[in-house]
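Fold it.
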Amino acid sequence: MKIAIDAFGGDHAPTEIIKGVVDAVNAEPGFTAVLFGAEETVRAELSRYAYPADRIEVVDAPEVIGNDESPTEGVRKKKNSSIVKAFHALNTDDAYGAFVSAGSTGAVLTGAVLLLKRIRGINRPALAPVLPTVNGGQVVLVDCGANADCKPLNLVQFARMGKAYANTLGISDPKIGLLSNGTEDKKGNELNKETFPLLKEDASLNFVGNIEGRDILGGAVDVVVTDGFSGNVALKSCEGTALTMFEVIKQNILGGGLRAKIGYLLLKPAFRRVKNVMDYNNKGGAVLLGLQKIVVKSHGSSKAKSITASVLQAYNLCRAGIVDAIAGAMVTASEE
């Protein structure tokens, strides 16, 4: 199995990307990593590390699609960019199972939609991160930014894909909730009101009803379904709240005198564990569900640890057969 990696995507590329890939290769022997980027620079960076020489390949891709560029224009014009060349490799070579990038989200999404084949029956791919819950579990959020405007059919497909993803995480009959502004059945905008009965009537889904944004990390459901606009706001709100709370705690410790500092030293291991649990980047990236190859979008600020997690996440999803699972769910749905 080959996994393509965008060596020049992200705020800390290529140094942290390459370090993360080397760590992933050294941790798991089951795949070959293929780095797409300016070959001379990539090989110079690789020379700093020890790794099995036959497990990392380099494909020269001197161009980079930046965050400030139009994703569509970048994908169409920069044929030698790391993102475009990686997607062409996935689309033409069966040896490739996945692609990992911390680069421009817009370019990754645009390239995936334009250059990769969708699973039959899927109208729109959806971006799905796995978030930690307060009870030590995890929840799949579908969609977190790939589709700002959706139709009820899209959300039903998101639910089916989210269920298949949750199955690969070891959740046999995941509880599925629809993100809304209240838990009552009639709450929500027109999209929610039209989607709710469709999810409720779908016998293949364990749909438990509407949930509010504050319940996403509460552990009551295993899959949260929403449109990409609302999902992105929810994701960034969760992330921002966590960062804000840690900053408030830090400021109170620094300004709280000797007693506060002693208390912090005693609680430091607990704070470290909490931060590790709540940082979803440590678990990998957001998976673009609905394509015939796996695409993992890592956070733009990813360091080596997060890249390692994303590469191993891609590898494990290939082994778990997530693409076939989603395809099977769509075939079953079409037969009902």
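The mean pLDDT is 90.
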